[in-house]
Design goal:
Number of helices: 6
Structural class: alpha+beta
CATH superfamily of the largest domain: Winged helix-like DNA-binding domain superfamily/Winged helix DNA-binding domain
CATH architecture of the largest domain: Orthogonal Bundle
Radius of gyration: 34 Å
Helix content: 10-25%
Number of domains: 5
């Protein structure tokens, strides 16, 4: 029996000018192998291994060319065009294969790649589907901390991005790990955050902590530089503002900013983050950089308080002399500043 979408070992039954007809020993069914693909010297009765599919006229046809995907298998294919009925994918043969609209799990864009699986529709035509989740394996060789690469097969606003690691192992990038737009077909690299009890992988796109902090700090510095050295907000900005501008969480942002502070590369003001000039960096390097040197929170000036040990008499409206202490404002400002610096140390 000749099987569509698969490699078949067939016999040359008869020859024609335009090719040879192939078939099985126990069947009368025949399929054409076009002349341009017929191996030189092949004779009637000899065996040949060919792949079977349908041509543009929907007729079974044989080829010795190797397709990128076969029946029941998964492969990454490139979209070469979209129509109302679906998208057409390049699979290595003359006729592109259809990815029906109903078999898509997200937007399909021309010249983008997607992981798909081959099947036959009700009319016995070869098609591919993006619905591959249930066919992924949960028996991967990866363990926590291992580096991986894969392709996004589907995005869920509730759970995150489902990924096929090595195009075959089931994995998930949790929603909390995603800080920028991600689509089905996107190629991703990351690490295994954990291996679930069912064998599926939880992934993180974050690099090892020290490396990630260093890269985030460099990225932040470059973006501040694009603002002529003065970022229009500081580390107390809303998390949505930070994620939109830098593509990272507020926590990661503050950690990287802390490194830049420690390295003496920036200062934080009441409303901005500023890059220090070379002269300012050199001056700080001479006397030793501290957070107090580079954090300049604008505070309203307060009057010099009266010493607790030397209270001064203050007459009331009636002329009666009373003693008062006026150092509360100083104490409160100092407490607020220390709390801010303490918070930075903890982060």
């Amino acid at each position: 029996m000749i099987k569509i979408g698969e490699w078949n070992d067939l016999i040359v039954k008869r020859e024609k000018e335009f090719g040879v007809y192939l078939g099985c020993a126990d069947s009368d069914s025949e399929v054409l192998l076009p002349r341009k693909q017929v191996p030189n010297g092949i004779k009637t009765g000899e065996h040949i291994n060919v792949f079977i599919y349908r041509d543009s006229d929907d007729r079974l046809i044989a080829t010795v060319n190797v397709p990128y995907i076969t029946m029941g298998k998964m492969a990454v294919l490139r979209c070469v065009g979209t129509t109302k009925i679906g998208a057409f994918m390049d699979w290595g043969l003359e006729k592109d294969i259809l990815l029906p609209f109903k078999e898509q799990v997200g937007p399909v864009r021309e010249n983008h790649e997607y992981l798909v699986r081959m099947y036959t529709d009700k009319s016995d035509r070869l098609c591919v589907s993006m619905k591959v989740y249930e066919y992924l394996s949960s028996n991967s060789p990866y363990k926590q901390g291992d580096a991986i690469s894969g392709i996004v097969i589907e995005y869920s606003s509730e759970y995150g991005a489902f990924v096929a690691v090595d195009n075959k192992y089931s994995a998930l990038i949790p929603k909390k790990e995603i800080h920028s737009a991600i689509y089905a077909g996107d190629h991703v690299e990351g690490r295994v955050a954990s291996v679930r009890e069912d064998g599926k992988l939880n992934l993180t796109m974050q690099k090892p902590i020290k490396m990630q902090i260093r890269e985030n700090a460099e990225m932040i510095l470059n973006i501040i530089d694009s603002y002529n050295g003065v970022l229009p907000f500081n580390d107390k900005a809303d998390s949505k503002v930070i994620e939109k501008e830098f593509g990272i969480s507020k926590r990661a942002f503050k950690t990287a900013v802390g490194k830049l502070l420690k390295d003496g590369k920036i200062r934080i003001t009441e409303k901005n983050i500023e890059i220090l000039s070379e002269e300012e960096r050199a001056e700080l390097a001479k006397k030793g950089t501290t957070k107090a040197d580079v954090v300049k929170r604008a505070k309203p000036e307060t009057k010099k308080p009266v010493s607790r040990r030397s209270p001064e008499p203050v007459p009331d409206r009636k002329g009666t002399v009373k003693f008062t202490r006026s150092n509360g404002g100083r104490r409160n400002n100092r407490k607020a500043l220390m709390a801010e610096l303490s918070e930075m140390d903890e982060e």
